[in-house]
Amino acid sequence: MNVVLLAGGVGGAKMAEGLAAAVGRDLSIVVNTGDDLELHGLAVWPDHDTVAYTLAGLDDEVRGWGLRDETWTVIDRLEGLGGQEWFRLGDRDLATHLWRTDRLRAGGRPTEVALELGAAMGIESRILLMSDRPVRTQVLTDDGWLEFQEYFVHRHQEPTVQRVRFRGAEAAETTTEVLAAIAHAGVIVVAPSNPIVSIDPILAVGGIRPALEEARARAVPIVAVSGIVGGKALKGPADRMLTALGEESSALGVARHLLPLISHFVLDRVDGGLEPEIHGLGVDTLVEDTIMTDDAARARLAEAVLQFATTSADARR
Amino acid sequence: MNVVLLAGGVGGAKMAEGLAAAVGRDLSIVVNTGDDLELHGLAVWPDHDTVAYTLAGLDDEVRGWGLRDETWTVIDRLEGLGGQEWFRLGDRDLATHLWRTDRLRAGGRPTEVALELGAAMGIESRILLMSDRPVRTQVLTDDGWLEFQEYFVHRHQEPTVQRVRFRGAEAAETTTEVLAAIAHAGVIVVAPSNPIVSIDPILAVGGIRPALEEARARAVPIVAVSGIVGGKALKGPADRMLTALGEESSALGVARHLLPLISHFVLDRVDGGLEPEIHGLGVDTLVEDTIMTDDAARARLAEAVLQFATTSADARR
Q1: pTM flag (> 0.80)
Q2: Contact at CB, A78 and B95, closer than 8 angstroms
Q3: Over the stretch A132-143, which tens digit does the pLDDT of each residue have?
Q4: Which of residues 18-47 of A touch B (CB under 8 A)?
Q5: What b/e sequence results for A250-276 when a residue is b if at least 16 CB atoms lie within 10 Å of its CB, and e otherwise?
Q6: What confidence tier does A316 reach under pLDDT thresholds 50, 70, 90?
Q7: Is the Cβ pair A71, B73 closer than 8 Å?
Q8: In chain A, which residues have their Cβ closer than 8 Å to the Cβ of B74?
Q9: Cis previous bond, A260, omega within 30
Q10: Taking CB atoms and an 8 Å cut-off, how many pairs form between chains A and B?
Q11: The complex's ipTM?
């Protein structure tokens, strides 16, 4: 069965790993590119690379981001030359950016470059970019509009986010690869990523939301997994963002945020008390252990999500 | 006394180090940029960096090029991704290229970027580029015209060089910094670099040869040190190049090649027998130990060269 996953960084990567264990080459991951940036002239794709490193088994599970056995020789030397490196690129990570920037400068289409990189890393599933054109997530704070990584990395997510926008998303159109993946999907999964700055930019790209709506109209289940557990984000500022934007920092808030797109919703056991209210929104619900602490937990959650989505889809007929 | 050195890579760097020990901030080095290249979108300046690393005391004296304590994590990983890396950049070296490329992309003039880098490395002397505009040394071989580094690094200097050209040298003009340095020079030194592909490109840049001729007309000594010792190049293919181009692979051949520009010529003791013939060309000659095996040898040769040039200049009055 073909599975499409909409994914941001760490939460998306864990979900991708679980789904890849279940369906392998039948998994297409549509990654958020709104966090991408250019550093030292190099194309840096943080969410893409987090997913890629995880699927390639190269991720640093202790630190939670980047590559295992990473070293920092280049960036240390850059700092020695007086550079101010708030976005510290590791040596092995840097190789990815050099490799990619080379291909892009040679005229490679970003999605093709991503697929080529996936192949070079031995990744069986397909990692697709939400668009080949630049989309830039920006957040409005007391200091005005900030680029996402300026807010996220440089300012440690400290400023309160008043608004979010996705520059270029209107004009960007998604790719034929993403449209084909959605058209052939048996299940579409929304990863437990930050709904506001990881999932929303994907949905804002021209063509993706209509394609998903069309899939739903064909009774293809769209199942979201909550990244808010016990009112807190598993990682990152999603909880504070939801609150600051006038939404509720809870699994219920996430479900409301993603409606009316989704048909199915998975929430953690600690939030079991919210199930009736979420079910009342008109989505099928599943209460599960959603914390993906290790490979086994990732695979188990992925299996549960797929079974939940497909079984209930059968039951509805 | 202000000293100007025309320099290529390794031989130029050793001479620069000796002269810097003698005159420090009064030394301006005009480096060949004809070997520069773009790799992975990064501005790589091999001759400049060889001089800079040597003057900063960071050079690897055992290997003879690049940085001491260099590591190769990035390039190894790039190769792991399937890249074909015939020009292997070390990690610490890479930081230089990233730093520089950043500055250039931000609109920095190449010479200013070079001076800024020198300051960041704590280099007292000034390293000047022969031009701010691109000049590309190319060599004609049986396989047609090759970019210099393609010939030098990728093909290990194996093809026979039939002709050499400096693309863009006609249109490139030298900088106000180079012209000012030459105008204020008390001595001009031509390093024991490859005369054909390290010194000639400098002389081919618009404005440099006339400025040097004007200096000579003001009785400023221009002293060349032979990089051919006992008929062999100390490093690189200069000997084979001289032969292939119909010149003589000897200190005499080097002196002839640099005439009528130079007023003084330094040759190694092993070539002492050539002194009468070189003197007969109309240049003052000095026979010296020219092999700069260590810091002390570099400083000693530099002192000898400066004394030779300035003393005989006085004597001619």
Answers
A1: yes
A2: yes
A3: 999 999 999 999
A4: 40-42
A5: bbbbbbbbbeebbbbbbbbebbeebbe
A6: very low
A7: yes
A8: 74, 91-92, 94-95, 98
A9: yes
A10: 81
A11: 0.85
